[in-house]
Design a protein that fits this description.
This protein is an alpha+beta fold and 125 residues long. It contains five helices and three strands, in the order H-H-H-H-H-E-E-E. It has a three-stranded antiparallel sheet, covered by helices on one side.
Length: 125
């Protein structure tokens, strides 16, 4: 996505690091560059607003459940493989047992998709 206008910070850079900005996991100087970019680029501002709203909704609806450490590390490992361009095994990630359940249920992660900055793990109980 790009608005077609030249910016000091390119739209692709902003969108590639949008989650780092949302989570405040980047240096303050970079945050300032992104804020300036959002002031002059309405498509990126719209994407930022959408992702911010989704993040708040997920936190409100799912923020009370603890994510099992085993599940988190398996999902993050798969995301790292995808980002590195390596082959990702087709089998599901299965996490079970009393210490790895979400909401008291075992979880099977059936799909992990990374597209640009969008990261999603689809879980099925």
């Amino acid at each position: 996505m790009s608005c077609g206008e030249p910016h000091e910070t390119d739209c692709s850079e902003v969108l590639d690091h949008l989650y780092e900005f949302l989570d405040r996991e980047m240096p303050e100087g970079d945050c300032t560059k992104f804020e300036e970019h959002f002031e002059e680029c309405s498509p990126c501002l719209e994407k930022y607003g959408l992702e911010q709203a989704v993040k708040k909704l997920v936190k409100r609806c799912c923020g009370q459940d603890e994510v099992p450490t085993d599940l988190r590390s398996k999902v993050m490992g798969r995301i790292d493989l995808i980002r590195a361009g390596e082959a990702v095994p087709e089998q599901d990630i299965i996490v079970s047992g009393p210490d790895t359940a979400v909401g008291g249920q075992d979880v099977t992660v059936t799909d992990v998709t990374v597209t640009g900055t969008d990261q999603a793990a689809t879980a099925r109980e």
